[in-house]
Amino acid sequence: MSNRVLVIEDEPAIADTITYALTTENFEPEWVSTGKQARSIFRSGGYCAVILDIGLPDMNGFELCKEIRKKSRVPIVFLTARKEEVDRVVGLEIGGDDYMVKPFSPRELTARLRAILRRTQPDVPAVSAEQIDESSPFSLNHATKCISYFGSELTLSFAEFSILSRMLKHPERIFSREELLDGIWGGESIAMDRSIDSHIKSLRRILKGVNPALDPIITRRGMGYGLKKPA
User: Fold this and answer.
1) Do residues 96 and 73 touch, judged by C-beta distance below 8 A?
2) With a threshold of 0.90, does the pTM exceed it?
3) Highest-confidence segment of 26-35, 41-50, 162-171
């Protein structure tokens, strides 16, 4: 698996700190300062993760994230100087995997990145996709971290994959936000429990993009979320 990390940050001092921290953790950071540069270099592929500043000089980082998500499931960690929860929610809804507010600890950033990558990198040989149930529109491939819905492969962030794959294994079971967070981070929760709501909203949008007539996700107010059992 590649150790290349694309760092998209317009402040040289912050970029230097990030690239140094990544280098000490055996990553191979590549720094660009604009969205235009990021678009160009990202086409070369081979990145294991992207660290993306929201406030770029030539474009909004959220828009760049949307462009990346059309082509790739690479983990994306947002950086911002703003603390508003709405920014965090929007970032997660459009496919971000984590969110850090400046100033932040470079050590914490690399720890979060490691946590994400431990849960996204395939660790077994590729196998054929697992059909969840004969009547289910879903199929799941654990090795490649891919889920298909009505035959269409879904472009999911690692958090979205973790939530949906867990619910697929236990249809009709209602998971609390805390249980779903634990399923993502494995006891190393570094996100808000309300971030689950954002991921669920994003999953609904993705699934409706394949079949607008169906909403397979169950919401139980005050309890959590689950997946409907195939009829």
Assistant:
1) no
2) no
3) 26-35
